[in-house]
Amino acid sequence: MKTRDKIIHTSLALFNEHGERSITTNHIAAHLGISPGNLYYHFRNKEDIIRSIFTLYAQHLESGFQPYEGEEVDVDLLIGYFDALFYTLWQFRFMYANLVIILGRDEELNRLYTETQQRFLTRATSILSKLKQDGVLVIDDNEITPLADTIRMVACFWISNRLTHSATTEITKTSLYEGLLRVLMIFKAYATESSRPTFLRLEQHYQTLAKNEQED
Questions:
Q1: DSSP code of 171?
Q2: Rounded distance, CA 24 to CA 28, Å?
Q3: Burial of residue 48, with CB atoms counted within 10 A of its CB: 0-12 exposed, 13-18 middle, 19 or more buried
Q4: What pLDDT, on a 0 to 100 scale, did the predictor assign at position 23?
Q5: What separation in angstroms does the CA of 153 have from each of 35, 48, 156, 197?
Q6: Range 165-178 burial, b when 16+ CB lie within 10 A, else e
Q7: Do the beta carbons of residue 135 and residue 196 sit within 8 Å?
Q8: How open is the CA angle 123-124-127, to the nearest 5 degrees?
Q9: Out of 62-71, 141-150, 163-172, which region has the weakest mean confidence (pLDDT)?
Q10: Least packed by Cβ within 10 Å: which of 86, 90, 148, 216?
Q11: For residue 206, how many other CB atoms are within 10 A of its CB?
């Protein structure tokens, strides 16, 4: 792995473990065993590193939430989307935990985030429209985009909600599975009679994963 890529991935790991505000470029350089000057050769400052991490985030949203075509809607297909959501929340949890502050201090990142979220909303709307077309969801056409936006809102702010409305100061995989289960509650409210068993199986799947994480 090239030094630049090592800096990005090491920074992401440190931000997730200790919180972005607690980690400086000196911490990152020391963790990698390189000089601060070597780090600054690749990145001007910490904000520059965060923008590069955001590029990874945007790439994952692009690849993980593509509308499906010509596939049967079953548990495995839906797990693909929900696993992609879980991975996003877990892999970039430092960002979701401090989203308003991170975006507020970097105008360029704020612009990129807004554009990325708009593209995600468009794809999510397409996915929900296809699920309606395939008899999985019952929903009026004019409510599809607001539903996609509501799901996006729950996902984006689940971590900050947990940090501000519970005694926990740490985000765990169990708490993220709880967030996925809340999103599933929304889907079940719009499920057709024939698709409801699929969503119930999906719910049982993530309940089991959450329980297993608690026991580990």
A1: -
A2: 7
A3: middle
A4: 97
A5: 40, 26, 5, 26
A6: eeeeeebebebbbe
A7: no
A8: 90
A9: 163-172
A10: 216
A11: 21
